[in-house]
Amino acid sequence: MRRIQKGDEPPSLKKYREQLPVPPPKDAWGRFTSIDDAREAVTKEQRQLCAFCQCRMAWKKTRIKLAHIVPQKVLVDGKRLDLVWTNIVGACDGGEGKPGHLQHCDTRQANSRLHPELDPVQFANGSLTYDEYGGVYRADGNPDIQDQLDDVLGLNLQHIKDKRFAALHGFRSELAESADRERWLQDHIDELDPESPGDAELKEYADFLLWHLRYGVLAHSP
Hints:
Layout: H1 11-19, H2 35-45, E1 65-68, E2 88-91, H3 105-109, E3 128-130, E4 136-138, H4 143-152, H5 158-177, H6 181-192, H7 206-214, H8 217-220
Antiparallel strand pairs: 1-2, 3-4
Helix pairs in contact: 6-7
């Protein structure tokens, strides 16, 4: 995960919200017809990565869910934030339609409220660590946040860890073939650094790879 810098909301969403009566109808979000404007906007904001697991989320190529960080059915704030752009991020399909134990990201979160430190818009970059097998862990060991990583978002499901591991293996192969190891490392750190400006497509599992470039197996590979 990394902090998502929210940009301007789609003009169509702003126009729709301003035309609604006060209070808005209960199904206001469901009546918003320019939903593809929102999907395109989150894809650009997130550089084509799911807000949670960081798998590929490509406009018009993969399914994009519009996830409410504070779910719509949460009694406190859910309805108030229903049409608020800073409460909406893009997510992968999260295994929708599969058994519950195989679901992840927004699909698994459903109506559970995330700990504020797992809110992708408030997220503190660098607050997670990773192992070389694809596991993701809270850096300070906070058990409540770790439980949400595991149980609410499902980010340590084996099939997701396997995909992270495969991405890391590919990076290790590239590094082994590089003529200038230090240059290769620095170029890729710069490319993946969340503080570096840019809107180009990011590599899948960008922050997992970045952590290993800085601190993990890539940093220590011969």
